Structure formats: C-alpha cells, structure tokens
Amino acid sequence: MARANRAVRRGRTLRAARLGPRDVLHVGSAGLRSRPVRVVLSALGIAIGIATMIAVVGISASSRAQLTRQLDALGTNMLVAKAGESMFSGKEVKLPKDAVGMVGRIDGVEDVGATGDLGHSVRRSEKIPEGGTGGIAVKAATEGMLDVLRGGMATGTWLNAANGRYPSVVLGHVAAERLGITEPGRQVWIGDRYFTVVGILDPLPLAPEIERSALVGWEGAQRLLGFDGHPTAVYERSTDASVRTVQKLLASTIDPRNPHNVAVGDPSSALQAKAVTEGAFSSLLLGLGGIALLVGGVGVANTMIISVLERRHEIGLRRSLGATRGQIRIQFVVESLMLSGLGGLAGVALGGVATAAYAYAAGLPWVVPPWAVGGGFAATPVIGTVAGLYPAVRASRLSPTLALQA
Description:
By secondary structure, the chain is α+β, with helices and mostly antiparallel strands.
C-alpha cells in the first residue's frame, strides 16, 4: 500500500498485472470445473453438430470409395451394343448372327461375348404357372461372356463347349435367390424340359440384366429351345486407350447399312452417376448438420450468459482486486472456447465412430477425409468466440460495487 502511495505521489500510473497463458487457462477453466454437468450438456450440442457433419461426409466418402473400387476392379472399358428399333417400322431389329466375330476384329477389342433373348420362362417345376417367373429372363450366352463381364462363379462352372450343348443352365445370383437355389445340381423347368443348374454367378454390378437371367449355352439354346442365333446384345472389352474409338465404330461394324439400328451403351456410366449422386445427397445432409451445429452454438451462448449472471460476485471481486475489463472479457471468451473445444473433440470422435460402425455394417471401406475432421474441429473456435463474445462483454461491463451487492 505504501509503495502504491509513493508511486502515486511520484506521478506514475498504476498498471494491472498481465495474465500469462497459464493464468488465462486457469481462470477460463474455473467455471467449467465448478459446473461439470452443465458443461457436458452444453458441449453435447456442439458434439452432435460436429458428429453429424463428419458422419455424413465420412459415410458418403466411404460409399464413393466402394464405388471407385468397383469401377477399378470391373473397369470402365466395357461397351454394350443392343438391337434398337427400325426408323420405319418401329419394330425391334435383329443383330447379325456373326456380330460377335465382326466386333472381335475391331482394333483394340480384347474380349467379345453375346446374349440372345429366348422368350421362355424359367420355373422350379412344370407344376408352377407360367406367369410365376419372378422377373427372370432366359437368355442364350456365348462362352466368352464371363471374360467380358470380368465375372466369377459363386459356385459351379460356367458354360463351355461340353455342357453348353446340353440342357444345362447358369443362374445369375439374383435369379438364383428368386428361385431358391443355392448350389449346382438342382433342376429348373425351361420350355418343355428340365435343365440342370451347373453354376451360379457372383454379383455383376455392370450387368444387372445378367444377374436376373438364366443363361443357356448358345448351341444348346438353338438345338433345344428354338433359338435363331441372332444376338440381342453384344458385350465387348477393349483397351482403355481405344474405348472411345471402338464406341464410334461399334454400331457401323455390326450393321454397316443401318448403324442407327444399333444402340451402344456404357454400363460403367451408371456407377459413375451413382458416385456423383452420393456427393449431391451429402450436401443436403451437411446442411442439416450445420443447423445442428448452430443450435449447439446457441446453447453455448445461453450457458455463458447464465454463467455471467450467476458469477456476478466473482466478477465484482476480481474487478475490485484490480482485474481490468479486458481480462474479464478474456476469461469468459476462453471459457467459451474451451467449452466449444470439448464439444468439438467429442464430436470428431463420435463422427468417426459412427462412420466406422456404418462402414463395417455395410461392408464398405472406412474413409473419413482429413479435411472433414480439420474443418469440423476448426469450426469450434469460431462458434466459441461468437457464442462467448456477448456474455464476455456483458461481464466486463458489470460495476464492481453492483456485482458485490448481496
């Protein structure tokens, strides 16, 4: 006291002691330590918002990663040429019988296969009504189809020169499920006779029409089911560098006189479009996560205002002991930042766990983009500053004498 009086007599101005980083953290965490339940409930709003945003981005990224893996495994170099409709009659035209051989002579083409619609139904037995097909188509298939599709056999064998001549059939995995057949050796009714199931295909994302089909050998279909030998669809694989060139030549090669009667499609475009759709849907869900985060910020601001009202005596005591308004503002802003930071950490953890659980359940790779984690956590100091600024200013304006009143 005597030193302060001497400083005043000498004309020097007294200055408040500066708060170091350790002191700021200590006074900022005082309110959090004294009210743990309120802290948890307030941080929960921030955590839910951050977790929602990270989970949405993570689930979308995991789905896109799975689609990318499928595209990499299946390739984007497969094209399908199908019989279109005649410009004059409007009826479906037929592709030439030697379409497979003609396509195979195009430079860059590596594998060629074809299917032909047979117009028959497939049933478990002749006792089942013909209308109960379950949406399963019966198609003739060439031996090269499996290589073109890059498919595999879930069980059994593919059609070959031996079994393709006789009443044998390979089922797509969807067709097998609808027929209730899980292993080779069972028989199904096609046309006017039983065919023996010799194999069941793995899923074929690039050829859903094959997944829902019963496939008979090309020669067996002609001999046993009256197939005329005209393919309905020609599938080809070419080198990556020649895909676009082959696409331009495919129709004119199959039908030089009327290339417009041939429709050429790219099956991989469906998966690519699905990947784009995943990103568009994520934008909507991100908006919902942002709303949840905003609600969490309002909750933090509300908590800080209540804290200021409840701690008027503490603020008045500190002010009377020499704390400046700036130090009071720093105290409550830091408290708000720490509260938001706790919510941000919890939200990042919850979002990562939610993404991992979904990816595990759906059989997807677990992918959480680093920018999503960084962006989610970087949003917390902004929310903490905005939410704590008004309560901090209000606390700094409290008069020491009014704050100390009983």
